[in-house]
Amino acid sequence: MLATASICASAWDFEANGIYYEITSESEQTCEVCYNPAVYRGNVSIPGTATNNGKAYTVTAIGEEAFYYCTDLTGITLPNTVNTIKTGAFYACSALTEVTIPNSVKVIGSSCFATCDNLKTVNLGNSVEEIGIRAFVSCQSLEGISIPSSVSYISYDAFADCPKFSTITVDEGNQHYKSADNILYDKKMTELILCTRNKPSVTIPSGVEAIGVGAFLACKELASVTLPNTVNRIESYAFQQCSALKEITLPPSLETIESEAFARSGLKEIYIPANVVDI
Fold first, then answer.
1. What phi and psi values does residue 137 have, to the nearest 5 degrees?
2. Of 14, 99, 144, 224, whose CB is crowded by the most CB atoms within 10 A?
3. C-alpha distance across the termini of the chain, in Å
4. β-bridge pairing 14-16 and 19-25
5. Is 257 helix (H, G, I), strand (E, B) or coil?
C-alpha cells in the first residue's frame, strides 16, 4: 500500500517557484521533486535545475508520491535530466490526459501512474528500461502503448485493469520483447506475456510454450482462446477474471497449471490433460 501524503510532506529540503525538492546528493548537486504540502495544480513544468541558497541542483528524479492524489494536476512537463520516476509519483492524478516521458528516463516505478482515470496517451522516451509493478494499473482511459527498443523489463501487471487498452507495439530493435496482433511476447515468441483487453477471441501461434503470469488478467471480453500443442505451462493468474470465457481446451502438451490460473473466470468445468503433473 502507498504511504499517505502527510508522510511525504516532511521530506522536502527547499522550495523554488512553487515546486518542492529533496536534495539527494550535495557532492553531485542533485535533487528530486517531492510532495507539495499545498498540492500541485494545473499545468506544472519541472525545470532541469533548481536553485537553493545560490547553488544549482540538477533534477534527476520525481520522488515517491511527489504528485500523489493531485487530482487538479492537468499537465506535467518533465525535463531531460530526470532518469527515474519513483513509486506512486503520479498516483491518482485523475485530471492528467497525456504524459510524455523524456528520453532521459530509464525507470518508471511501481504504481507510478496507477488510477490516473483519464490518462489516455503515454509517450515513452527512447531510454526507458523498466516499467514497474502496477505502473499503469486501473488507468481507465489508457488506449495503448508503444514499447521502445530500450525496454528490458515490463511487470506482468503494469497495465492490469485498463479496460480500453487495445494496442501494444514494440520497436523492432527491442532485444527482449515482440508484439503481434496487439499481443506482447518475449523476443523468441515462446512466452505470451500480455494480451490487450478488448479481444473476444485469440488464437495463440504454434511455438508458444508458456502463458505468462496474468497474461489475460481481466480480459473480460475474451470468450474463446485456442492453445497450440506447444504450450506446456499456464502460469499464475493467466486467465483470472476472464468472465466471458466459458470453455477452453487444454492441449495434451500441457504439464503445469499454476495457482489461480483460471480464478474468477467464466469456466464451470475443465478437462485436465494426462500430462499435467503440477497444479
1. -60, 140
2. 99
3. 30
4. antiparallel
5. strand
The rounded distance, in Å, linking the Cα atoms of 17 and 51 is 10
Rounded Cα–Cα distance for residues 68 and 165 (Å): 23
| Chain segment 3-28, per-residue pLDDT in tens | 444 344 457 999 999 999 999 999 99
Cell output for 109: 516505478
pLDDT tens-place string over residues 236-264: 999 999 999 999 999 999 999 999 999 99
Give CA–CA dist 159/157, Å, rounded.
5
Segment 126-175, tens digit of pLDDT: 999 999 999 999 999 999 999 999 999 999 999 998 999 999 999 999 99
* 51 Rama class: left (phi>0) / alpha (psi -120 to 50) / beta: beta
Q: Give the H or E element holding residue 229.
A: none
Q: Cβ(81)–Cβ(61) under 8 Å?
A: no
Beta-bridge mates of residue 256: 233, 278
The C-alpha atoms of residue 90 and residue 17 are separated, in whole angstroms, by 20
Dihedral sign computed on CA atoms, order 213, 217, 219, 223:
positive
How far apart CA 87 and CA 57 sit, in angstroms, is 22
Kindly state the cell numbers that stand for 214: 496474468
Amino acid at 110: S
Q: In degrees rounded to 5, what are phi and psi of residue 156?
A: -60, -30
